[in-house]
Amino acid sequence: xxxxxxxxxxxxxxxxxxxxxxxxxxxxxxxxxxxxxxxxxxxxxxxxxxxxxxxxxxxxxxxxxxxxxxxxxxxxxxxxxxxxxxxxxxxxxxxxxxxxxxxxxxxxxxxxxxxxxxxxxxxxxxxxxxxxxxxxxxxxxxxxxxxxxxxxxxxxxxxxxxxxxxxxxxxxxxxxxxxxxxxxxxxxxxxxxxxxxxxxxxxxxxxxxxxxxxxxxxxxxxxxxxxxxxxxxxxxxxxxxxx
Length: 243
What we know:
This protein has 243 residues and is of the alpha+beta class. The chain has a domain at 65-229: Muramoyl-pentapeptide Carboxypeptidase, domain 2 (2-Layer Sandwich), CATH 3.30.1380. Helix content is 34%, strand content 14%. The protein is built from 6 helices and 7 strands; from the N terminus they run αααβββαβαβαββ. The protein has helices spanning 3-20, 32-51, 55-58, 102-116, 131-140, 196-211; strands at residues 65-68, 75-77, 98-101, 120-126, 161-168, 215-217, 220-225. It is globular and about 40 Å long. Residues 5-57 have low confidence and may be disordered.
C-alpha cells in the first residue's frame, strides 16, 4: 500500500471520530446505570401525573357533603372570596358556592326554618374552603391572628364552619355593628357599646347557632363551627365552575 493511501485512510478515520463527538453526531448509548436512572425518573413523573385528578373528577361534591344555593328558600349567597371584596382584596374562588358536610347543612336548614318563622333569612359569606385556598390566603397574610395556618387547618377546610349573617326576607342584612371580616374590637362578641338593636340582632344569631350545636369565636360575630366535628380531616377537594 502506498504511503499516500495510508495517510488518506488515517485522515478519514480521524474525521469520522471528531464528528461523532460533536452535537448532532452519533452518540454512544448510555450505560446501564444511566438507563436505569432515566427509567426511574420517567416512572416518577408518571406517578405524579396519575395522582392529579382529571378536572371533571374534582367537581362533583364528595359523598356526605351538600351544597346550599341561592335557589334554596331563605338563603342568600355573598361568597366574598369569589370576589375582591374581602380582606385580601383578591379573588380566591373561581366562583361563589357554598358546600358543607351534610350534618352541618342539616343544622343550618333548621336554623333557616326558625328564622323564616320571624320572616327572616340567612346570608352566607363563606362555607367550605378548600385547603389550597387556605394555603394561598396564608401566602398573602401569614398571620395566625387573621388566617389559620394551613398546616393546622381551618374548620372551614373541614367543611364544618361557615360565616353568615341574618337578613330580612328580601335579603337585606340586619345591622350587626360591623361589616363581615372587620378585624377590630367592635366585631368581638364581648364588645358592649353597640346599640340595643345591634346587640339584639347578634344575640338572635348567636342563640340560634348555639342551640343547634354551633360554637362561636370571641373575635368574629359572623363565624360559627361545629366543635364536635373539629377532628375531621382537612379536605383539598375543589368545586367546578360552569362556563
